[in-house]
Amino acid sequence: MYTSEVTVDTGLGFGTFGIKFTGLIISLTTEYIMDSPLQPHGAFWLFAGITWAGAVFMGLFMKETRGLTDKQKKELYRPVKSYVEEVRRLSVKTDRMKLYDTIDDD
Predict the structure, then answer these.
(1) What are the CA-CA distances from residue 54 to residues 24, 31, 58 (Å)?
(2) What is the pLDDT of residues 85-99, one digit of tens each?
(3) How many CA atoms lie less than 13 Å away from 37 in the CB half-sphere?
(4) pTM: predicted TM-score of the whole model, two decimal places
(5) Which of 5, 15, 21, 93 has the most CB atoms around its CB within 10 Å?
């Protein structure tokens, strides 16, 4: 749900792919891990450890989106290049507005 709230369609596609790919890896490796020296209880402890590591990562690196508008949420993870282009575009627009204001004053 988090991915769909803060990304554009391309980002949502990558997020969905990541979830499905992770599920595939787990389904392909679970049987082998359970037959390994870890045995079933060790396999579940391994998966629990990976889950806790993911939870810590999420807690440390995911940004809070509560109370933000849809546009603000999408800007949180916008690539820097597109942000710089947006700033330049707004800067040019502001310069044009100043130019028109000086023309109107004459």
Answers:
(1) 17, 22, 6
(2) 766 766 665 555 555
(3) 0
(4) 0.58
(5) 15
Q: Count of CB atoms within 10 A of residue 12's CB?
A: 14
- pLDDT of res. 28: 95
Candidates 87, 85, 84, 83; CA nearest to 95 is: 87
Per-domain residue ranges of the chain: 1-62, 68-106
Q: What CA–CA distance (Å, rounded) separates 6 from 4?
A: 6
Per the CB < 8 A criterion, the answer to whether 66 and 79 are in contact is no
Residue-wise pLDDT tens digits, 45-97:
999 999 999 999 989 988 887 888 877 877 777 766 666 676 676 666 555 55
* DSSP line for 19-78: HHHHHHHHHHHHHHHHHSTTHHHHHHHHHHHHHHHHHHHHHHHSPP-TT--HHHHHHHT-
